[in-house]
Request: fold
Amino acid sequence: AQEDLLLAAAYVSDAQYNRNVPFETSPRAIRLYYFYNHWTMQVAIYFFICVDLSLALFEEPALFPLPFLATSIAEVLCLTAFFGRLVHFAKVTPQMVFWKDMKNICIMVTIVLTLIDLIIYGSLEAVNIHSVRWSRALRPVFLINFPESRQIRRTFRSIRNTLPDILYVFLLFMFSVLIFSLMALKLFGDRGLQTVEGLPYFTNILEIAFELYVLVTTANSPDVMMPAYNFNWWYSLYFITYIIINTYIFMSVFLAVVYNNYRKHLKNEIRKLAYLKRHKMIEAFNILKVKVGTEFVVTEARWKRLARIVMPHISSPHLELLLRISDEGQKGHVDKMNFLRLADLLNIQVVTINIKRHPLEEWMPRVYQSSASLLVQRMVRHRIFVWVYDVIILINAIFIALDEKNPFISYAEWLFLSLYIIEILLKLYTYEPRAYFGKKQFWNWFDTLIIMAALVATVANTTIQSARKYNSQQILDIVLILRILRLLRIIVSIQRFRLIVTTLINIGPTILTFGGLVLVVYYVFAIIGMEAFHGKIRFFDPNFTTPDALVCGNPALKDSAFARDRYCKNNFNDLASSLIVLMELTVVNQWHILAGGFALVTHQAAKLYFLSFHVVVVILIVNIFIAFILEAFFVAY
Amino acid sequence: AQEDLLLAAAYVSDAQYNRNVPFETSPRAIRLYYFYNHWTMQVAIYFFICVDLSLALFEEPALFPLPFLATSIAEVLCLTAFFGRLVHFAKVTPQMVFWKDMKNICIMVTIVLTLIDLIIYGSLEAVNIHSVRWSRALRPVFLINFPESRQIRRTFRSIRNTLPDILYVFLLFMFSVLIFSLMALKLFGDRGLQTVEGLPYFTNILEIAFELYVLVTTANSPDVMMPAYNFNWWYSLYFITYIIINTYIFMSVFLAVVYNNYRKHLKNEIRKLAYLKRHKMIEAFNILKVKVGTEFVVTEARWKRLARIVMPHISSPHLELLLRISDEGQKGHVDKMNFLRLADLLNIQVVTINIKRHPLEEWMPRVYQSSASLLVQRMVRHRIFVWVYDVIILINAIFIALDEKNPFISYAEWLFLSLYIIEILLKLYTYEPRAYFGKKQFWNWFDTLIIMAALVATVANTTIQSARKYNSQQILDIVLILRILRLLRIIVSIQRFRLIVTTLINIGPTILTFGGLVLVVYYVFAIIGMEAFHGKIRFFDPNFTTPDALVCGNPALKDSAFARDRYCKNNFNDLASSLIVLMELTVVNQWHILAGGFALVTHQAAKLYFLSFHVVVVILIVNIFIAFILEAFFVAY
Ligand code: NA
Reply:
């Protein structure tokens, strides 16, 4: 019976967390499955994924160089952990299912490929031949394919489903760009026009197509139009037509197609998840059911034991509450319909309304209930208290904006800090502390953390200052940022602002999923970029004005827009720099200058790297992000 | 009875065209109302609106200068026409309604203000004092407020309804920008950093706020970040945070709020329109009803006379068809339910399926039905015929891309032109011409017009060339564009492409409404811009390299990015140039350079003009445009 309960609890738990892993039902497999789902295992696997991904920081081209031996040993360790996790999974799931699941095949192939790459690279390195560590671009496979990354996989699936529709729009769009390129070549090619840099204007169809693609991203507007426009007023009509059709209409159509598929896909996923959840709950019910009268039910005792296995830390009142809901008629058993609701019931966060008294009241009731104390409490609860502190924040804002070298102002900082600390203490005196720091009290947490951090940092800074007679720049920066973040509190005072911010905070977790998705794509592009471009462009201190520094250490950049705009630090010489370049490419502006610079120091084909990044990140992922924000706001408003 | 019929027909007609003008029901008022709605009157009023708006082309600063007397006489004429239209409307509508309608008040006030402005400006001009023609910015009032511009007014209403929601998000967004500005001032202000141009970096809070606002539009990314990033790697995190919160999240929230309101508003409008339509049809029914048995109906004869008044050019079969639908039981009368459907029935375009024979078949049946003729027809109808022409188009595309100075290629052009003409002739021989040029046959029309135009232009060009021994550049350009547009035909061959293009063509009319809306906003901003900035920046031929030409004729622009990028032609010196500058501002890229240039030649406050343009056009109107495209594609897909 205990084994039946464990199996049923595994089904319920899977339903509760939307896990969809088929597992064997032998007692040993179930125990292994519990171990597989244990949080320590999950944390461990995420730790190894993080280590594996962050190896790129230490490998050539490195931000913090480590010898190849060290990084390769770390990588082999990670691979072992991944393999161990996979073996564990293989023991849990039926063999047939295991070998049919693409995720497992992917992980295994990646492990093997990485090992091969490590061996080849290592042996070549031993004889001093430098080769390419291509398998590093495969590392995100581990992040995507472990069962824990359901959310990221779901978004990838959504993108994959969108691809056919997007593809046709993209082809039509490219066709339109080509037609316009041909037109531009014929209209402007023979005019002998020149760009601002004195280069020939629109004479080569490939260059024209690239420029017009850039115009779709608006990055070279209006410069690309100026030579033709200067030549003849009427030619601006060509560019206006192009911008309306390609920049406005096509880009909106991309968003429309992505959004439409996103919604369709979301609906399907939710329907499928609901179906699977119900299915698992029925399995659990069938294991535990007994016949009472004409219907099958689960007895109260069994139901309680099940709930305690699924949620070991559930409190007794919480369990009683759930039972009261599930067994409305108090018949001593739970019927099928109510049993199926259990997974959802467990997911509901029960806020235990705090009827507990304030600790101070229990500790010294006389003092806490004295008239002076009650007056303080009434004062703190009053609306004027909030207003007074809003005014204090505004005055504080003005003080921050003023020059802080004035000693009077830096003393005022201490005053404000004490005022904020007093506010928190007064509130903790008035409100029950456990309620004040409840799970949903975002702003109380925010306030207290900001103030405590500011206090610690300010004290630390003062100590360092008086001891070593110098300011630590990092600590000063942190103190400053904390000081300004305090001003955010003003948002809470305005109802409409709070509504918007709450919506944004609520979609926070899903934005993190996007973070994962973006990380995967960025990582792959960063590795490719580092292999292709590292060392080609170097950064010199901005005060250097040697000829070498002015062309980022590469004579090919002479007279280029890249060097003129001093973009030398936008290079692929380590992971951090690469990610920042990719972020700049995502923002799109000036991406053609960056692409042009890297094409000059390597080959014109390098522009393909930047074009594909634009298609993947801006046309697909950013549009999915926008679609997601739109959907979230439609639900909230 | 005739008067009753006229009144009822007026109601039906209003329901058919969604007109919502309350009119008096006296016979004279009804006759005036018919006259008011006559298409000649509508064309006339649009003609005068166009003349009034285009006056800005001829007034100082003018594209085609005309004396003040000429333009003012034209303007007074237009005002008279508008006033006449208003008087006409006053005689049609009940007095109470007329004076309560804001639209009429708006028009009258604008007429009076314009007259006052004309008189003041004229008298000052007479004594040689130059003043401002401020009333020109009011001209779009006429375009918006006449009952014919329902669509534009609806979009404006939609924007107005969105404003409260947008305002709160905007305030929160501005608050966020200010907080970040304060942070930037504190973090970077004292570092002694410099921009690429050698100017101090982030030392003034107002300048920082402007730069950060520009960063939201992405126009100064990554330049705004580079000095801090060059100084210290970690400061890039500040900018990344800023971009994620303000550029990505807030801008998406703006789109979400606009889109959400747009949808809500659209639903309400449609519901209201349906209600009003039904109401008018009931009015019409009540006028015409007679009692037959227990129910009120409209007799067949009356119904027919009504339909003939509403649609004078309706064909007899069409009328019979409508009657058959409305009087299903053939009882000789139309009941209430069927009568109410009339307005919608009249709006349905009846495509008379063509069972007519080909004219050639009627004219010479023997020849047309001969086996050779039938073979030709079968050939044309065959799929291979389409494929052959697809291949011809592709070959044509290659020939166009090649250099046309080769005489062989220019002869080939004639060959292609003849092949296309033969194709059209063959199709006209095979298909019934009236069916071929049916209303819905967009691509047949497109094909034929392009080919005919190319034929005319090519012949014209050849004639000019052989007669005067020189090429007309304009005609050559047109021939070229037509030649390339022919390639668009390839779209028709691919089903998925056709679907996308059809959706785009179907939303064409509504995009025109947007054109009207954009025109109104652009016009107002252009007039203000011309008054504020005309003559400050001048354009010199790009080959000029005199010091004056290099600073666009204004020494204040020395060393500015505006002059360095050679943006001299982006000025407000006439209406056309102004509209093009506004278009560039809508595309957003480099708008801060444009704003900076105009601020340098006038005052820093000029940036407010560009900021407000961004808020109105990009945040509001472009987002409504995107919302509209999204909605259209959701309905189509
Ligand atoms: Na841009």
